[in-house]
């Protein structure tokens, strides 16, 4: 599976997206699929790579919606 480490992130990028404590081995052996895609989306967002960001978000649309709305929104039924 593709991870952020396939894109050679810098130390600054890892810190900016909150992944500075996660090793490549952790991503390959312990991270779930949603975490991997979410991290990729954040990396691409940080790099302003909108095409790859959209590709990563397409794998986790619910997480994308939460991220863009903010995690403290309230769902109101119609």
Describe this structure in words.
With 78 residues, this protein is an all-alpha fold. It has one domain. The protein is built from five helices and no strands. The protein has helices at 11-16, 24-29, 33-46, 50-57, 61-69. Helix 3 packs antiparallel against helix 4. It is globular and about 45 Å long. The chain starts with 10 loop residues before the first helix and ends in a 9-residue tail after the last helix. The relative contact order is 0.14.
How many β-strand stretches?
0
**Molecular shape:** globular
- Assembly classification: single chain
Instruction: Give the strand content.
Output: under 5%
- Measured between the Cα atoms of the first and last residue, the distance is 39 Å
**Order of helix and strand elements from N to C terminus:** HHHHH
Unreliable stretches covering 5 or more consecutive residues: none
Share of helix among residues?
A: 55-70%
Radius of gyration: 13 Å
Number of helices: 5
User: Largest sheet, described in full?
Assistant: none
Domain count: the total is 1
How would you classify the helix and strand content by structural class? mainly alpha
* Mean pLDDT rating: 91
Task: Give the key terms.
78 residues, single chain, mainly alpha, 5 helices, 0% strand
Short overview:
The chain is mainly alpha-helical and 78 residues long. The chain contains 5 helices and no strands.
Describe the secondary structure blueprint for this structure:
Elements: H1 11-16, H2 24-29, H3 33-46, H4 50-57, H5 61-69
Helix pairs in contact: 3-4
């Amino acid at each position: 599976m593709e991870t952020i480490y396939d894109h050679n992130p810098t130390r600054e990028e890892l810190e900016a997206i909150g992944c500075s404590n996660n090793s490549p081995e952790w991503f390959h052996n312990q991270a779930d699929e949603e975490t991997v895609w979410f991290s990729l989306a954040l990396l691409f967002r940080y790099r302003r790579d909108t095409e790859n960001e959209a590709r990563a978000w397409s794998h986790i649309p619910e997480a994308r919606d939460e991220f863009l709305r903010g995690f403290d929104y309230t769902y109101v039924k119609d």
